[in-house]
Design brief:
Helix content is 11%, strand content 32%. It has 186 residues and is mainly β. The protein has one domain: BH3618-like (Roll).
């Protein structure tokens, strides 16, 4: 399927790149079909692109990149809704808010997006833990992580100048499990 997006231009999205979110994203319940887009830059941010309203895209980032101890504890009902038979088949992403001043970027750790990588179904869950908030400032941690990655990638003879950056849909099957989902202890 070819979709024309407001942010990424034209994208080709295959069946293995489509995610169903039956209840939609909080505030956007009418949109249920999405894909993940890699903008082709070095930020590690993926975008959750609506396939029903191509002007809607949410920036996502794995919380473990800036909060290593992060864990999403899901109830038995949430695990059933996600059709998660094995919690190691899931990926967790925080939805970001990126203002004009990117140093004020925040991540919603209270209501992450959990994706069942096998079934390609997702849900934005509201965690019961009070330790997480909806506006976790994380720019400093993300910048430090990016600097570390950049230093590891650099080599004297590598040159990224002149390379064209292109956006592409991400195959859900290629996303590694994040291992941040925990079931509730009864």
């Amino acid at each position: 399927m070819i979709i024309k997006t407001g942010r990424f231009g034209q994208l080709s999205v295959g069946d293995d790149e489509t995610i169903l979110i039956p209840q939609g994203i909080l505030g956007f319940p009418e949109y249920r079909k999405f894909c993940l887009v890699d903008p082709g830059d070095e930020t590690l941010i993926l975008w959750l692109q609506s396939m029903e309203n191509t002007d809607i895209a949410f920036p996502l980032l794995e919380p473990k990149l800036f909060k290593p101890e992060y864990a999403a504890r899901l109830s038995a009902a949430e695990l059933r809704e996600l059709k998660l038979e094995n919690i190691n088949q899931s990926a967790v992403f925080a939805i970001l808010t990126i203002p004009e001043d990117v140093t004020r970027m925040t991540a919603n750790l209270k209501a992450p997006l959990v994706i069942n990588l096998k079934e390609q179904v997702a849900k934005q869950v509201v965690l019961q833990e009070n330790e997480y908030n909806i506006k976790h400032e994380m720019f400093r941690e993300l910048r430090a992580h990016l600097i570390t990655i950049g230093a590891q990638k650099r080599s004297p003879d590598s040159s990224a100048h002149g390379e064209e950056v292109s956006s592409s849909a991400v195959s859900i099957k290629n996303i590694p499990p994040s291992l941040t989902v925990k079931s509730l202890q009864v």
